[in-house]
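Newbie here. three chains, one complex. Structure please?
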Amino acid sequence: LPPSPIITLTTDFGLDDHFVGTIKGVILNIAPEARIVDITHAIEPFDILGGALSIAHSYTYFPSGTIHVVVVDPGVGSQRRPILATTGPHRFVAPDNGVLSLVFEREVRLSVRHITAEHYYQQPVSQTFHARDVFAPVAARLALGVDPGHFGEEVHDFALVSLPRPVENAAGVIAGEVIRVDHFGNLITNITPQDAPFLFLADTPPFQIVVAGQQVSHMRNAYAEGEQGEVFGILGSMGCLEIVANRDSAARILGAGRGSQVRAEPSG
Amino acid sequence: LPPSPIITLTTDFGLDDHFVGTIKGVILNIAPEARIVDITHAIEPFDILGGALSIAHSYTYFPSGTIHVVVVDPGVGSQRRPILATTGPHRFVAPDNGVLSLVFEREVRLSVRHITAEHYYQQPVSQTFHARDVFAPVAARLALGVDPGHFGEEVHDFALVSLPRPVENAAGVIAGEVIRVDHFGNLITNITPQDAPFLFLADTPPFQIVVAGQQVSHMRNAYAEGEQGEVFGILGSMGCLEIVANRDSAARILGAGRGSQVRAEPSG
Amino acid sequence: LPPSPIITLTTDFGLDDHFVGTIKGVILNIAPEARIVDITHAIEPFDILGGALSIAHSYTYFPSGTIHVVVVDPGVGSQRRPILATTGPHRFVAPDNGVLSLVFEREVRLSVRHITAEHYYQQPVSQTFHARDVFAPVAARLALGVDPGHFGEEVHDFALVSLPRPVENAAGVIAGEVIRVDHFGNLITNITPQDAPFLFLADTPPFQIVVAGQQVSHMRNAYAEGEQGEVFGILGSMGCLEIVANRDSAARILGAGRGSQVRAEPSG
């Protein structure tokens, strides 16, 4: 007997209201054996790109067969479509607003369907809480084994949003930005080892990083290698350049945040 | 083999301390197969009515047989009684202070018992943490199949608290109030379609809504239908009039909050 | 068939990012039957003693066989060791930085191992997220039944940190301090009934408590026994003197917090 299916939740609902608990009730009412795992409910309200980042950096760690419900949904109740995406081992249920874009970028075997099978919804369907009335019941039916093909027809014109990409100018300067500030005040940038390989060499050549107008002079391998009060760069767990401090918040020290400019260049 | 029983938790304990984790440990120690679902732990400290609202708007979505632990308990350690309520499909464990009032209002087949079977408690019983020492172990024994009758005698003088109700004056003005502000800044009012049917007609006649002294001119069907910066009314997922904005916080825009007055009247 | 193993999580990761969800994915990918329980993720960033307190006050309530993952880890990626501790019924996975000190103080049958079995890690191992790449997979292998002896050799020079202890001067004054402020604003002190037995007698003799320079005149048995606005003492659920208020925050009323001095003396 295989273990019961896992359903993950990634939303901007917060934990202050009964919303998330209600979604779980709906799922368990339909699929009593489902096991539900919160990825996060602290996406900034209406922040589609924030939701896209959170699911893209976590879903690959879940077992094959996991169903991911991703609801950042400012268009709830409007014409935006509910979609069901399958990518070989993973399945996703979300509004069609780009919140799955960064998943779609990574996946080759991708099928996206417009969910139209309203008989699977929780009735009556509110105009303001489709996580409860549409996405949760659809995820629960998937967990019960309903085939994705039964939820609606495949579509190819699904919405996509893009992370800002760093650009390299003629002088070799990489201009990127902070795309997220984590709980510790680490500044996660959009600059990867592919964008700026010189930063990530075992023996880093001379370089310059400027974040929010301030010079960052060292790349280090671990937070604990930093001196007190020092802000430095590191290869973070999301695979990007992070600007961090040892036991402190780089965001606070630099006064930087999401959208802050990050410039990196070899200076050798 | 039926799936293991579900126990939900609704408290004002927050998530910063080890309290909620400890409660779960106590439950799993007694009923290893129980599955525990958080509804919310962010009820305002000591806010009995807030707890009553959260459980009342979520419990019906859970499967038959679910056990709901609801602990907002400023009287812990005093003479207030612990109670066990059964309503056909659902069971509730809570202090007798009114936190189940809105459940009791909805339920016809209701039995409420004063829990006196101290041999089911976690010993020693602290005077400050009955969720751990009384409510969790009682819920766990229910999950194991102990009959509600074994926990104590039925009582009929249980505590009740009431939501403020809207009133209608001779001129047809409905005077209600904001009973909750959700995570998105939506203002949930106590005005239902029964109180003010003219607001919820497919073809709304002319009306006036005044919230915190400010005019709200439109009812809409979905958040996304609002114009930028506009505050408008909607039928919310809790079945009440909500005052909302599109991708914004109506609470912030209007400077309104819980207790703010809401007046609605037909103006045709 | 025994129920599936329980893995608890205590961290300073917060719930805003995808970190905790990712850890759960890693665990479930290796040990699909594991059941994961959050103790708290709201330890102050890098607060080893805060983490030590949270796990020490909760782990004993969990069933025998539970695996506790405790990650407050400012030294991640440095030479600090990952350790696996077993204490008869409980198992712990943590960095070797003292975060398990208060568990170790309580336990007689204690074995601590340096985890060196890198083939159990999630590859590649980042330098910044060992909860995902080291501690979660080790916990999951334990849940699968891998013997603790397979993870590494026993060590005896593990790190320890200490709670501040109250001191008694020649005049019988007990000088302690606030070691934590809970969600309700209760001030948890490090003074136990053993330190100041006169505070906890059924018939308390005259005494003086001074907290943050302000006089506290009564010990009471329950929060609800306090008068409005009164700050008083109580034996809290953690087995220590707590300075509290009835439906209010003693921390706010007194302007006190972690580290605030607490002096108690018999005045009879």
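Moderator note: The longest strand of chain A covers residues 174-181. The helical segments of chain A are 19-30, 48-56, 101-106, 130-144, 250-254. Thread marked as resolved.
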